[in-house]
């Protein structure tokens, strides 16, 4: 009987001891769980930050690309305006030469139209050049000056045919350049001016090609077979 009581007392002591151990361990388990939870949240936040980073980088790259495109477009605008001003000056001076040396009325009349229309286009282009920081050229390009020197030494039908061929070639190139500028420029004022100029140039091209036909020249302003 006494042995049973002793055993029962031992069991009770063991239960009390086990309970104390569990109570001591619970806060540690709770701290571990909290640390895991905190670590998990931190990992999620870091993952979210990592996931957001590519988007931010993409946005920055897009802004940089837009800035580069804008800079490239402005450089092309400046080049176009400078070339247009130089080309217009050449058309005016060549038109004056055609009025002086042309042997046919249609060549003289076309030369007068070049002086009038390209003077007007040049005057309209100068304010845009100023806005873009483009210095107005002092005169035509070296290539156009060489053409003028060549025509100065010609007369009669030879002058007419050479002038017609030069005008067909120049206006084809000008039409292409103006159309390209219209499609790529981001400057609204320049786009509108280029559109107006391109219409005038196409009218000139159609007219000089008609004159070429009346002088028995092909659509390029050259004699057949050349």
Topology (SSEs and partners):
Blueprint: H1 2-101, H2 105-132, H3 142-152, H4 156-184, H5 188-214
Provide a concise account of the structure shown:
It contains five helices and no strands. The chain has helices at residues 2-101, 105-132, 142-152, 156-184, 188-214. Helix 1 (2-101) runs antiparallel to helix 2 and helix 1 packs parallel to helix 3.
**Uncertain regions spanning at least 5 consecutive residues:** 20-40
CATH class of the domain at 73-214: Mainly Alpha
Instruction: Estimate the mean pLDDT confidence.
Output: 81
The CATH homologous superfamily of the domain at 73-214 is called Ferritin, core subunit, four-helix bundle
How much of the sequence lies in strands comes to under 5%
First-residue to last-residue Cα separation? 138 Å
List the secondary-structure elements in sequence, H or E: HHHHH
Structure description:
The structure is a single chain. The protein is mainly α and 226 residues long. It has a domain of 142 residues: Ferritin (Up-down Bundle), CATH 1.20.1260. It is 86% helix and 0% strand. The longest helix has 100 residues. The radius of gyration is 42 Å and the shape is elongated.
